[in-house]
Task: structure prediction
Amino acid sequence: MAGASDKARFYLEQSVPELQELIRKKLFTNEEVRSIAKKRSAFEHKLNARGSTASDYARYAEFEMNLDSLRRKRSRRLGVKATSYTGQRRIFFLLDRATRKFHGDTDLWLQYLTFARQQKANKKVTQIITTMLRLHPTSPELWVYSAAYAMEERGDVTEARSYMQRGLRFCSQSKSLWSEYLKLEMIHIAKILARRHILGLDSNSSERHQASTTEVTDADVIPLSSVLVETQTGSVINRIKSGGSKAAESKIASTPALNGAIPIAICDSAMKKFPSDATYGAQLFDMVAGFSQLQCTRRILQHIVGTLLTAAPTSPATLDCFISEPVIGISTTSPEFPEALITVLDRFDSTMRKLGSMDNAQDRTRTCASVSRHMITWIMPYLVIPELDPDIRSVLRSMVSSAGNHCLSDMSVEGGNMKAARIALLESLDTHGFKELVQSGLVSALEAWPDEPGLLALQASGLKQPDSLQ
Result:
């Protein structure tokens, strides 16, 4: 223990000048400084003794962070100029000691990175990331964290891609890493398009700019939008917006960075790694669908659906994506929505007819029930939209009834692992007033699970009368 005590005393002696300065500048009282020294002594003896853990270092670091925060607040309140000693250096040294001793603890590395980012120590962050990834090359979440830092804090998409690609060399079987790489590229496209919109380089902005300029042609004013564009973007944008602007816009829109070529390549590589996992392909589909406002989204979704239909044409996940794809990104108030909805309904009907010809009766029933349940889940959010056209609402409710007959007729076909999903479906149908459908489904469900509390509660509460959406 002598060695441990000597180390602890050594580290404590280094903090003596700092504590003396805190007293001299009246930031802390003598009693408070004694309490700080006592607390540090307890931490140091614990860290330098046998059996210290990573959580001990984490608690010590948290104590020092809180202490430094209190010191800065008192300095501002009392008008004390910057002190010679800051807590930042001490905390960095402590976290460096922690990661050297417990280099396998990723939580410590993330705490180290979080503090460095809060202090805006960019060089330190880069050093920490380099060391961390060298020690943990097979940890997908650390590669994702590093790429997110490069993208969000530094705005360097090239570096972010480098982290993702290097991570995939070590973690090629990580589904989350492939998904995050795809998400990174989709975010990058969204940022590029947003910048082009702000600078007035897209066709919609150009039309609005021309219209606003025309409106004030006869007025004795200078169009503000043209002044801002002239001031902020200079002659480069003016040259683009003058002669040959259509050709320039066409050229920009056809680049791989905007037309979805890069996300498509990522999807192909990811799905080749997991060729028999249609569920993962559906996860990629859902993630891309979240960027519904991008022009390239539909092309990427169609490519994913085509790949899924080739690899697993009868998988419920594939069929769910195939059916819902036409309406993604289309507003219910858009003139295109009715036609897209008709396409969805046609795809659902044709899918159910094809499934009806499957040889295996159990697989046929299970797949039909899964697809129908997804169809109902997909329709429900539309029914609560107040401005939805009454005719479209009527068609959707009719579709729910048709799909419900497929997925609620026999509750035992998919096994007990989907019990919670089916109960939630019955509750949702009850909320939206599908009384007869819920009654028939409840009978089938009670036959499969007679002692299920959720079903008994639904039966005891009574079914709600059809609401105004019916």
